[in-house]
Amino acid sequence: MSTPMAALIQLTLFCFVVSNLFLSGVLATTFTLSNKCEYTVWPGILTNPGVAAISTTGFALQKDETKTINAPAAWAGRFWGRTLCSEDSTGKFSCATGDCGSGKVECSGSGAVPPATLAEFTLNGAGGMDFFDLSLVDGYNLAMQVTPQGGTGNNCTTTSCIGDLNGSCPSELKVTSVDGKESVACKSACLAFQQPQYCCSGAYSTPDVCKPSNYSQIFKNFCPDAYSYAYDDKTSTFTCAHADYLITFCPPLSTSQKSSQEQTTTTSPSINGTGGTGTMTYEGVSSLDGSGASRSTWTHLSGSHAIVGAISITVALWQLL
Question: Compositionally biased, Low complexity: which spans (predicted)?
Answer without folding.
Answer: 254-268
